[in-house]
Amino acid sequence: MNTPLPDNSPDSLDPPDWDAFGSLAHQMLNDMLDYCHTLPERPVWQPAPESVRTCFREGLPRHPTDLAAVHHDFLQNILPYAVGNGHPRFMGWVHGGGTPVGMLAEMLAAGLNANVGGRNQIPVAVEWQVVAWMRELFGFPDTASGLFVTGTSSANHQALLVARTAALGVEVRRQGLGTAGQRLTAYASAESHVSVVSALDYAGIGTDALRTIPVNARYELDVAALAAAISRDRAAGYTPFWIVGTAGSVNVGAVDDLNAIADLAEREQVWFHIDGAYGALALMAADLAPRLRGIERADSIACDFHKWGQVPYDAGFLMIRDGALHQATFAAPVAYLNRQARGLASGGVWPCDLGIDLSRGFRALKAWFTLRVYGSDRLGEVMSTTCRLAAYLGERIEAEPRLELLAPVMLNIVCFRYRATDPDPINAAIVMDLQESGIAAPSTTLLQGRLAIRAALVNHRTTQADMDILLAATLAIGTRLTCTNP
Ligand SMILES: *Cc1c(COP(=O)(O)O)cnc(C)c1O
Predict the structure, then answer these.
(1) What does the pLDDT look like over 315-350, one tens digit per residue?
(2) According to CATH, what is the number of the domain 115-361?
(3) Span 377-392, mean pLDDT?
(4) CATH number attached to the domain at 20-45+83-99+376-486
(5) Pairing of the two strands 443-447 and 450-456
């Protein structure tokens, strides 16, 4: 015999005592606000000791632990050992700083727990509003569509799939690549991001299809070389189908000549995609926007709100000029996703019709909060400021005989090194020492075979004093290392 089920679910995971839970919740919020406002006083980064790593090797917890105890573990063993990109002297890779506003929006989104794959709900309308704002910013037509994704790596991949549909027709979705008989080729500069290469791999086109176009002295794609490569490929029977321009290259912050590429793409009838991972949003900055001229002519743009946009991770974004083609690339006619005239399943295009993901979180909310609370002008000013800081850092490096600038400072990235007889290992060691000291966290890259200290200034908290601290620490460590290793 079945026993009757109780009126209140004994299996509910809600707190048995909402008041006690509430005070702990407020404590957790206060802790994170403290963390945010004391960031500059903390080390940028510190390696986790073995004693901490051991905690993360325990097996599946089958039995409950008090929330307070788990939170305590978070404060002790997780919070101090994160990557540190909120800190004003985190300059590694291209990481955004995030804001307390974005953090609160994330909490609200998590509380709502909306599945923003589709359906008749305002969270979808919020996402479409941000898409409309981006159309306005990019100068795209009303027929353009867009959506949030994890990051630009995914956006590049999904943009490529739409370009593939444009080249081969929607039949490619059923027939696959082989049957059309074309040998597709894609084009991007030697400075383009690895995710552009990976996109060809994931799409089954293969990375051999990528023609790597050389760059000029300013690290911008050489458009004449691009034109020549396309002609060569056409003559050899290939089908050029995807040109990628970069707006803000990951190594040095170069912006390709987007208008010149757009002219060529138009002439050649080839899809023009822009990887604007961090650079595209610089359209918000009056002084930087002219650098991006031609962006409005792209067929697709990939960018990240989580870099210069200061929205907490993750918040990648994709926009496609031809919304119908975008939908034709991803929408799937299955009964359980059918649209109805009324009710929850009504509404037109859903985000799941425009990308790989069906279930998806409410990423749009943190971008919507960020844009509304700060306004795009203010976010643009943050971007301009980081570029001015980069220019200042570049000037100080040029004035310092022990240092050498390795690339022109074009946007917000500064690549330099400490002069030494065997500079690569010394500069690699300087960066590791800087990171482990907790003073500053630049990263490294290779420029023309030379190892560079790379400072990417993305964070709204960074100041001129932080540039001075970075330089002083670099010189001190460089001097120490070159004295002990002559
Ligand atoms: C960061 C970056 C990417 C990758 O973006 P994710 O958000 O990390 O996936 C691609 N291209 C460029 C130019 C980037 O700076």
Answers:
(1) 999 999 999 999 999 999 888 888 999 999 998 899
(2) 3.40.640.10
(3) 98
(4) 3.90.1150.170
(5) antiparallel
Q: Is 304 in the pocket of ligand 1 (CB under 6 A)?
A: yes
Do residues 379 and 371 make contact, with C-beta atoms less than 8 angstroms apart? yes
* 78: CB partners within 8 A, 6+ apart: none
Domain residue ranges of the chain, discontinuous segments joined by +: 20-45+83-99+376-486, 115-361
Confidence of residue 484 (pLDDT cuts 50, 70, 90): low
Q: Please indicate whether residue 191, judged by its CB atom, sits closer than 6 Å to ligand 1.
A: no
Ligand 1 center from residue 159 Cα (angstroms): 14
Residue 330 · residue 355 · CB < 8 Å: yes
Please work out whether the CB of residue 189 comes within 6 Å of at least one atom of ligand 1: no
Structure tokens at 10: 């004994």
pLDDT digits (tens, 9 = 90+) for 119-163: 999 999 999 999 999 999 999 999 999 999 999 999 999 999 999
Question: How remote is the CA of residue 93 from the centroid of ligand 1, in Å?
Answer: 9
Q: Which of 83, 85, 153, 305 should be mutated for ligand 1, with most atoms under 8 A from CB? A: 153
Q: How does pLDDT run across 251-264, given as a tens digit for each residue?
A: 999 999 999 999 99
Tell me the sheet residues that pair with 236: none
How far are the Cα atoms of 10, 165, 172, 186, 252 from residue 208, in angstroms, in the given order? 58, 20, 20, 9, 25
